[in-house]
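pipeline stage [seq->struct] | target=DUF3305 domain-containing protein | organism=Sphaerotilus montanus | residues=171
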Amino acid sequence: MRTDPEHTALPPTPPTQIRVAVVIDRQHQPSRWEDWRFTLADVALDDGQYGDTPRLLRDDGKAAQFLFPGLPVELRRDEGEGYFLNLTSGAPVWFVMWRIDEEDPSRAWPERVTLSYNEAGRLLDAQERVDNRPLPAEVRDWLQAYTDAHYRPEPKKRRRPVSFVAPDQRD
């Protein structure tokens, strides 16, 4: 999904919440073992240019693409470590949790978008589907500024080897 540069820039004073649009691709019978396969195609900043209603972008009978606009991404102080881990991973990403309709397995939609590595891990631990897409530079800079302002990593403490700790002080 391509957008104009003026639609992808964050405001000069970054908010703690932005909106994004998610694009999901669907393939019909990609193999003889699957009826449907879904993939996360794109995540883009959404300042309202995509509307408020999910919609089908294209469908040729074999492959379809769906747009889900208006999903909130909120930065919270209690997720600072998760943002820090995402930023220091070497390749920061959007994490998108999405679901497949149990009654109609040809339908899937995104439920949540986060920038926290820890939140994505909790969702995966809960057996949710979580995929990721690369984070654009302007969002990475926004996340970095927020993390720098609100998160301080715990100082690393050197643990003494057990052999140097008195027997009555060992765990």
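stage status: PASS
auto-comment: The mean pLDDT is 89. Residues 16-152 form one domain.
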